[in-house]
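Protocol step 4 of 5: obtain the predicted structure for the target chain.
Materials: sequence only (see below). No template structures provided, no constraints applied. The aim of this step is simply to have a reference model before the mutagenesis design in step 5. Sequence pasted as it appears in the construct record:
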Amino acid sequence: MRSCRAQPFLALAETVSVRAQDRKEFESLLKKALAIDPEFATAWLYVGTALGNQGRRDSSLVALQEALRHPTRLTAVRRLDVTGKIALAHLVRQLARRDCGMIDCQMKTALLARFGAREIPRAEFMRKLAELVNYPQTGRTWSLDDDLFE
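Step 4 output (structure tokens):
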């Protein structure tokens, strides 16, 4: 089975990642795993996460979607992880198109930081919130823009 031959490269990539070593080595090991087994969903998840960490959101989304194309190759927890990241990416795109002024995330996480989240002082948050609550309504009905899902 191809994933048996690809697994050692994934394990090495995990080790490199945990030790915060060379990013190029990490990516090289994932590429080797995917060259052996292009349907290795966990490797695609790692690629998507790494690309997201580099701020390459569109490429990250493509890799995460590729991971999800092989759902039987992911555990239920990893499927949830992938779908959550994809959903957040699409939400951010939809809200950006509508000039959404702010998303109140409540918590600081690496995933949210990839999408530009940052902590702001409470006074700034309250000022921004007051502005946005009184923002003039556009009269448009909320709808999803399908072209953002490509």
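Step 4 remarks: Helices lie at 2-18, 23-36, 41-53, 57-68, 76-97, 110-114, 122-133. The chain has seven helices and no strands.
Proceed to step 5.
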